[in-house]
Amino acid sequence: MTLIAVGLTLLGAVCFAAASVLQHHAVTTTEHPDARDRVEPSPTTASVVEPVRHLNGRHLLAIVRRRRWLQGAGLAGAGSLVHAVALLLAPLRVVQPVGVLAVPLAVLMSAWKSRTMPSRGVLVGAALTVAGVVVFVAASAGSATTATPSAGATLTAGIVIGATVALLGFAGMARQGRGPLRCLALAGAVAAAYGLLSALVRVAAQAAATEGVLSPFVLGCVAGALVAFLVGAWLVQHAFHAGAPEIVIACLTVGDPLVAVVLGAVLLGEGSTTPIGAWVLLGAAAVTATAGVFTLAHHHPDAVAARAGQEQIVART
Q1: Which terminus of the chain has fewer CB atoms gathered within 10 Å of its CB, N or C?
Q2: DSSP for 17-32, written as a single string
């Protein structure tokens, strides 16, 4: 069952990587409806005309009508479906981190789309991210056990993660324009939401086996998972607007497993048989993967271009 779950997760990673590239293209190339009502800047006023900095309801509605966005949504839905099946077959600590393969896949797909070779910094960041999560999987797979959590513990975990999502989401939305920091904050919020989603799916599956599918606990987990999905789906569009798909997918494949593993340990007892040495290795792997995400964000062409633009502005003033 574990091998089947890993295979399904790999298939999901391919779907998620392709979906991120398609939806990022749709988000960043769709004209903002407000822009049609604005006067085209002249050479004398171009420097003071501010671009539209945030997605609003009208812009999002225009985006979701795009063919590429709908194709990406379909792939993301297919990836979510096979990922959910994988969660029913194996523990969170085994399934979640395998999705890290979406990172190099997104890098390769973006490079193929732009017909450019990724820079050394981008490749190093992707490699660190993949290596960190691969070690994370290897260290956690051998000692994962599962138990059914209580409703109180599940509710507490949901409140804590929900507050984290709100904090990161507010930090990202408070910043303006495109940039790696805003992208990281928004993608981090999405990762926390999706990590909670995965944990609730696993908890609901465990509880359904003992309490029944229509028990209040199971229905509450399903409702919480639906809210986490909708919040994450909304925030990820803003993350695509703020930065590159590789950065977004890297944050998701690192933050999502970290949240899921912590919740798995706290709620499901999946860390009860893990020795101290394995926890140290897990921590080092998590730090390595996180460093890879920040390296990828720093060296991505979008971030390099943004810094160059800021330097030109400073030089002119």
Answers
A1: C
A2: HHHHHHHHHHHHHSPP
